[in-house]
Amino acid sequence: MKIYYFTDPMCSWCYGFSPTVQQLKENYPNIDLQIISGGFSPFSKQVVNDEYREFLEFHWRNVNKMSGQYFDHAMKFVSDTFRYDTEPSSRALVVVQNLMPGKDFEYLSLLQKAFYVNGLDITKADVLADVAEELGVDRNSFLEHFDSDDAKRKTIHGFEFSRQLGVQGFPTLLTIDNGAVKVLTRGFQKFDLLKMVVDEQLAQQTATELNAGQSCADGFCAY
């Protein structure tokens, strides 16, 4: 089964959801988890003034209460030049998906830690490259791909794909079965509840496959 995970490196509820996704990957190794940077606030010019800081802290406290994920409320990333633009970090995730397939969730988790725990400005290319180096990605190769038109185009495609499927917020997990979109969870969810939904979906998929196989009888198969 393929599950699409719509997320954003600078979405606090996605950070809170990361342990759940980690458990999903560990408990269902055969599930094809496709991570999509859906675009929480791409190209935003939002500054972190006192009002917006209060807005962020309110959500961060709620995420911490629900998930236990740690936040450094000092927000050391705030500066005169910082804008809450999630396009650069989303593009960086796309670059890592191209350069090191299979490491995208690990990179996403490192970006979240860099931002929410270490207070680094992950809207900056050099910071994004530093984090990629932790995975063994060549710095020069990362920066070259990061600045490419191809990476920018693929990032925009992820934003558009999110809108096309009607994703209304992050995190969102969904499947697509014969063109029909089925949302598994919209927003934060703990693993025990998500597991029930995933198990139900897997059971339905198995039943569908078994029913399809019953079209064979008396040595004849109607495909």
Automatic annotation (TrEMBL):
A single MF term (Gene Ontology): oxidoreductase activity
Coiled-coil intervals: none
Entries under InterPro entries matching the protein: DSBA-like_thioredoxin_dom (IPR001853), Thioredoxin-like_sf (IPR036249)
Leader sequence segment: none
Residue intervals of the DSBA-like thioredoxin domain: 3-179
Bilayer-spanning residue ranges: none
Tree of life domain: Bacteria
Protein name: DsbA family protein
